TrEMBL record:
Cellular component GO terms, alphabetical: centrosome; cytoplasm
PANTHER family assigned: HOOK PROTEINS, PROTEIN DAPLE
Keyword Signal appears in the UniProt entry: no
Lineage per the UniProt record: Eukaryota, Metazoa, Chordata, Craniata, Vertebrata
Transmembrane segments: none
Organism the protein comes from: Pterocles gutturalis (yellow-throated sandgrouse)
Listed GO biological process terms: cytoplasmic microtubule organization; cytoskeleton-dependent intracellular transport
Name used for this protein in its record: Protein Daple
Coiled-coil blocks: 58-151
GO MF annotation list: dynein light intermediate chain binding; microtubule binding
Length: 157
C-alpha cells in the first residue's frame, strides 16, 4: 500500500509539473499577445482603447494564472503533508481521491483558460483587422477632404 501511495504521489507530482508548465506557457502566450497588442496600439489613433483592452486582457489572464498557481501550491502542500504525516493507507486513499479531483478541476481550469486565450487571440486578430480597415477608411477620407478643399480653393480663386 505504501509503495502504491508513493507511486501515486510521484504521479501527482509529475501531473502538477505538467500543469505548471502549461500554466507558464499560457502566461507566456498571454504576455506575448499583450506585447503584440501594445505594439499595434502605438501605431493607431485607437491607442487608448487598445491599451485598456490589453491591460484588461493581461489582468484577467494574470488573475486566472495566479489562482491556478495557488491551487497548484495547495496541492503540493497537501502532498507534502501526506508524506510527512505518514497517514494510514485508508486515509491516504481518501486524500488521493481528493487530490485527483482537485487535479482534474485544475486541468479543466487550464483547458478553459487555454480556450479563452484562443478566443482572445481571435478577438485580437479581429480588432487588428478592424483597426487596419479604419485606418484605410481614414486615409481615404483624408484624400477626399483634400480633394474637396482643393476644389473649393479653386472655386474661390
Amino acid at each position: 500500500d505504501r509503495d502504491t501511495d508513493k507511486k501515486r504521489i510521484e504521479e501527482l507530482l509529475e501531473e502538477n509539473m505538467v500543469l505548471e508548465i502549461a500554466q507558464k506557457q499560457s502566461m507566456n502566450e498571454s504576455a506575448h499577445l499583450g506585447w503584440e497588442l501594445e505594439q499595434l496600439s502605438k501605431s493607431t489613433d485607437l491607442a487608448d482603447t487598445r491599451k485598456s483592452f490589453v491591460f484588461e486582457l493581461n489582468e484577467c489572464a494574470s488573475s486566472r494564472i495566479l489562482k491556478l498557481e495557488k491551487d497548484n501550491q495547495s496541492l503540493q502542500n497537501t502532498i507534502q503533508e501526506l508524506r510527512d504525516a505518514s497517514l494510514t493507507s485508508r486515509e491516504s486513499s481518501l486524500k488521493f481521491v481528493e487530490l485527483e479531483k482537485e487535479n482534474q478541476q485544475l486541468s479543466k481550469k487550464i483547458e478553459k483558460l487555454q480556450n479563452q486565450i484562443e478566443k482572445e487571440k481571435q478577438s485580437n486578430q479581429d480588432l487588428e483587422t478592424l483597426s487596419e480597415e479604419l485606418i484605410k477608411d481614414k486615409e481615404q477620407l483624408q484624400v477626399v477632404m483634400e480633394t474637396l478643399k482643393a476644389d473649393k480653393d479653386r472655386e474661390v480663386q
